[in-house]
Amino acid sequence: MTEAGVAHVDVEEVATTVDAVAIRGVTKRFGSGDGEVVAVDDIDLSIADGEFFAMLGPSGCGKTTTLRMIAGLEFPTSGSLKIFGDEVGTLPPNKRPVNTVFQNYALFPHMTVLDNVSFGLRMQGVDKATASGRASELIDLVQLSGMEKRKPSQLSGGQQQRVALARALVNRPKVLLLDEPLGALDLKLRQEMQLELKSLQRDLGVSFVFVTHDQEEALTMSDRIAVMHDGRLLQVGSAEELYERPANRFVADFIGQTNLIEATVADGDMIVLGNGSKVLAPSDYAAGTPVAMSLRPEAISIGTRGSVPAEHQADSLDGVVSTAVYLGHALDYHVSVDWIDLEVRAPAVGSRGRFQPGDEVSVWWDRSSNWVVAD
Amino acid sequence: MSGITEPRGWTKGALAATSWLVYFFFYAPILVLIIFSFSDSRNASVWGGFTTSWYSDFASDSELTGALWNSLRIAVVATLVSVVLGTMSAIALERFRFRGQRVFDALLYLPVIIPDVTMAVMLLLFFAQAANWFGFSKGFGTIALSHIAFCISFVSIVVRARLAGMDDKLEEAAMDLYASRWQAFRHVTLPLIMPGILGGGLLAMTLSLDDVVITQFVTGGGWSTLPVYVFSLIRKGVTPLINAVSVVMLVASMVLVALSLLAQRLRGDDAI
Amino acid sequence: MAAVFERDEIDVEPFIHGEEATPEFEAANIAQDRRRGLLIALPAYLYLLVFFAIPLLTVVVYSFATRDRFGGADLTSFNLDSYVELNDQLIRTIILRSAGLAILTTLICLVVSYPFAYYMATRSETARNVMLVFVMIPFWTNFLVRNYAWYVILGTDGPLSRVAEFLGFGPTRVLFTQSAVVLGLVYGFLPFMILPLYASIERIDGRLIEASRDLYANGLQSFRHVLWPLSLPGVIAGSILVFIPSLGAYVTPQILGGTGTSMLGSYIVTQFLTARNLPFGAAMSTVLMVFMLAATIIYFRKGGRTL
Q: Tens digit of pLDDT for each residue in A78-96?
């Protein structure tokens, strides 16, 4: 799926090579003096035309502020913000060729679905008949035909979501911004809408910039993901890059589950773990740098004490099972190694035996599956 | 969060009985007043058979109808001005940050919490002093100016509550959809706070029509509103005519209150 | 589907070009927003300054002036005489009487309102709203008329006296007594107690009371240790909202009270309209106002919101 997404950004398919959104050195501060908060701290970001781009991070990380700055709902304190090459930093939202699907949709409660959807066109001076006509097409597109005369309060959450989409798309934005668009929906509907949004975006070929705190949502839908934390942009990359080659400790921990084992970089490609054992783990960090080795629970194998295959001898640890949880498709173990606790996920089928708390076991991993991160 | 569950057994009975007594206490005097306004007796408190003559006396009493007319004119002016000023102040306080905001906020609350008598005294001295300096006569103008001074606050509080209950993302959404700030206000904010504006306006009108103390202090030149005139009648000696006038005032203010409650309950289709 | 979304078909006016944002632009933007806010507030602001703040200061200024021979105030000679005059036997009596009646009114309101507000808070949403509307109606109904209704009921040979006679109590005279004044005040200000009390009881999580019962508290203990302390903000708010206007009451003692029941509010009025001692009346008003402000500040400190 990510493969398809990457292919989609291919230069051949997209007419322009100008970035849909180009953010350079943008900082946003709120308040002043002691109460000053740096919401977005000097970030650089390029979003390609036709890309499905997610901004991911915990609440308060600056992702929503970044989105609001692209929309024009906040002005940057400093830095350059370009949409298809045009600087828009000082433009108010009604002068920018972008539209937003708001969190909880912000549909106008006193207007019908049709009036909601034609609002943007009417405000741009399009006559009522043309605006209604085009709005109807969009209402068809989001499969809400026949609901034109309803008020938002008479619609289900999923339908409101579609109205919000139509209301933004009817203006043919150059970039569509989505602020936690699926947050208010229940799990099943959310999964349906994820696929629908993705296919809609592919059909329209317009860039979607999407803010979420739900990493699964970001991983499922996006071509590329930006991870933000404390106003800083930590890493931008595809789902695979983020998962397999996290740029730092925060990203490793935030995307999926992982075991972070404290270590220090030693000479060559070796690192020294907390118990003094040396492990082969190549990285660019200088000798002596405190780092952590990231090991995904599913990358760790588990077996009875002493059953470590010869080729993994150097990458193994001995421990005792402290908890064992049956998950259906997998078994989740916590293994106490003398100085740390490791989470291990073994497939339920084809595992080498099942273990009970108190069992003495060995764990090992493939040399290629470890990854070294620093702060 | 779950509310307090309804009590059971005799506690419930006792509570329900108390509540009915409270309502009886609220409404029985009003009912008595209405009944006695139809009493054919010189004594306002004694029943002497049914008559509607007090109401026709009211209609033909030129002083009373003149005072009623004055009350209505002042109420309309006070309502219109205070609705405009009160709504603007509510918008400024709820949607903007500006220098002197806290002082303004406090200044808006003061007329609501200050006792009538103090406000009346303030305005009496103020207009007396101003009349000394600028030479104008008290009457319609001074009454209307005073009523506006306390009505603004009530309108502002009601409209502000409505604005605070409105999702401010709606205005952002409008601007994101190419509305200018003014268009966003005109097409989104204004329709949604309209029930608050109507409610506040009706409240202002009720307050203006009810006021005795302040009006009595700032009036002059034989100018009188209905409540002030009735108040002076009560102090001179009571006749059932006052009962009839009171019932008219009562019905008027109840209708206005009912309308204002209704207006505030109008919802912009639930979503806000 | 793509036909709906031909991007180069955009036929609305072209978007203007912006510039790179700078801290100066951001500051100017915030400043402009502040100016706009102030501009919108300005008409009401100026109005209240002229017709409220200045009159308020006028009273304070007058309270320091000297009474002149014509019943006016000499605004050239300022002193504390009026405040010294407050320490007079008659004034002390009036203040004490007013405070006493206001406290009595407040207590009666509290005792009557608490079970009512509690009961209201326990009802269904619909029942609550209906009950609330029927409290709101007398709340906003003409105060003068509502006091006058009691004048009719309590009057000589009036309905109450008839009922009392019928029950064998003999002729009773309540009108023009302090009891009548308290009755009128309670009638007038009861909604001021019910509304904040209801607001604070309604907010209480019912599970807390259930938890207290689960932990072996009987009904009284549960009230004493859980319900009462949690509803205290409402009790304080309601008490202030009843006490302050009672203290400044003018219409009620004028209609229902007799010669010996003058209260602070009506006494202040007399100073202006009859005795023509403006500085003294102004001093009393100022004291009442300061007292009212202090009470309001306490109210808001205690987290009160309802007015």
A: 999 999 989 999 999 999 9
Interface contact B102, partner A, CB < 8 A? no
Length of chain C: 307
Tokens representing A301? 């194998």
Provide the whole-model pTM.
0.85
Q: What are phi and psi of C244, to 5 degrees?
A: -60, -55
CATH fold of the domain at B61-270: MetI-like fold (1.10.3720)
Residues of B with CB below 8 A from A94's CB? 175-180
Name the residue ranges covered by the structural domains of chain B: 61-270
Contact between chains at B98 and C35 (C-beta distance less than 8 A): yes
What is the C-alpha separation between A23 and A17, in angstroms, rounded?
15
Q: Which two tokens stand for residue C86?
A: 């407050």
Which segments within C46-150 are labelled E, that is strand?
Answer: 66-67, 73-74
In chain C, what are the domain boundaries? 86-302
Which whole-number Å values give the CA distances from A226 to A72, A98, A241, in the listed order?
20, 20, 11
- Three-class secondary structure of residue A88 per DSSP: coil
CB A52 within 8 A of CB A217: no
User: B88-111, pLDDT tens digit by residue?
Assistant: 999 999 999 998 899 999 999 889
Distance CA A364, CA C115 (A): 70
Neighbours of C3 (CB within 10 A): 7
Measure the CA dihedral C223/C226/C230/C236, to 10°. 40
Class of domain C86-302: mainly alpha
Q: Read out DSSP for B18-45?
A: HHHHHHHHHHHHHHHHHHHTTB-SSSTT
CB-hemisphere CA count at 13 Å for B241?
18
Q: Are B254 and C137 in contact (CB under 8 A)?
A: yes
Residues B137-176: tens digit of each pLDDT = 889 999 999 999 999 999 999 899 889 888 889 999 999 9
How far, in Å, CA of C264 to CA of C285, rounded? 9
Give residue-wise pLDDT tens across range A338-356: 888 999 998 877 655 688 8
Angle C9-C12-C18 from CA coordinates, rounded to 5°: 110
Q: Do A171 and B178 touch (CB under 8 A)?
A: yes
CA C290 to chain centre: 15
Q: Which of residues 97-156 of A touch B (CB under 8 A)?
A: 98-100, 102-104, 106-110, 119-120, 123-124, 151-153
- As a whole number of angstroms, the distance between CA B238 and CA B39 comes to 13
Q: Which of residues 157-196 of A touch C (CB under 8 A)?
A: 169, 172, 174
Kindly compute the dihedral angle of the four CA atoms of residues B72, B78, B84, B88, in this order, to the nearest 10 degrees: -150
- Output the CA–CA distances (angstroms, integers) from residue C275 to A285, C258, C268, C271, C278, in the order listed: 92, 18, 10, 5, 8
* B contact chains, 3+ CB pairs < 8 A: A, C
| Pairing relationship of beta strands A360-365 and A371-373 according to DSSP bridges | unpaired
